[in-house]
Amino acid sequence: MALVELYEAKRWPIAIGEDQDPVDVLQYAIDELGHTQTELAELLGSRSRASEVLSRRRALTVEMIRKIADAWKIPADLLVRPYKTEHAA
User: Fold this and answer.
1) Domain residue ranges in the chain
2) SS3 call for 84
3) CA torsion sign, 23 to 30 to 70 to 41?
4) Is residue 17 left, alpha or beta, with left meaning phi > 0 and alpha meaning psi from -120 to 50?
5) Domain 21-78 adopts which CATH fold?
């Protein structure tokens, strides 16, 4: 097993399934990896933007994905999966 694979296996001990979307990955990072919604807000530029992403009212942009992947060391391929967003009323 390559060093990168060992690192990822330790960093992401629970396999993220195909049925889980990027918001599930972010929620896992917040719940299990010690990150906070406040940290996410700092990465995305505002609390409201972080809230909209986590509630699936705003889709992640390429720039958001890059910032999250770099800061939280989450593989970008887990964040670029397509997912449905709910339109604000």
Assistant:
1) 21-78
2) coil
3) positive
4) beta
5) 434 Repressor (Amino-terminal Domain) (1.10.260)
Q: What is the pLDDT of residues 18-74, one digit of tens each?
A: 678 899 999 999 998 899 999 999 999 999 999 999 999 999 999 999 999 999 999
Cα 60 to Cα 85: distance, rounded to the nearest angstrom:
10
Distance, CA of 79 to CA of 70 (rounded, Å): 12
Q: How far is CA 43 from CA 21, 37, 47, 82, in A?
A: 19, 10, 10, 21
The model scores a pTM over 0.85 = no
Instruction: Copy the structure tokens of residue 59.
Output: 């889709």
